Amino acid sequence: MELKEKFKDLRRTFDTEDISWVILRKKRDNKKRGEVAPYVKRDAIQSRLDSTFGAENWRNEYILWQKEKEGLDDKGEPKIFHNGNR
Fold this sequence. Notes:
two-stranded antiparallel ribbon
């Protein structure tokens, strides 16, 4: 699969069962209102990367990074390898 096709595959819509909703904030005056955000399940993302690139061609890395005025935190990001380049 060419790299262009792989990125097209990554942009496919996830199945409904792979999405859950996270409550971000509730209105204090009315419990039926608030903000929610969609959340793609980790297993669905891992399966997509495995099927597109192969399990051996990507990994999740956690790195320390500096938040402005807030100190250190960690950030996860996938690293994808193309044609065996690491």
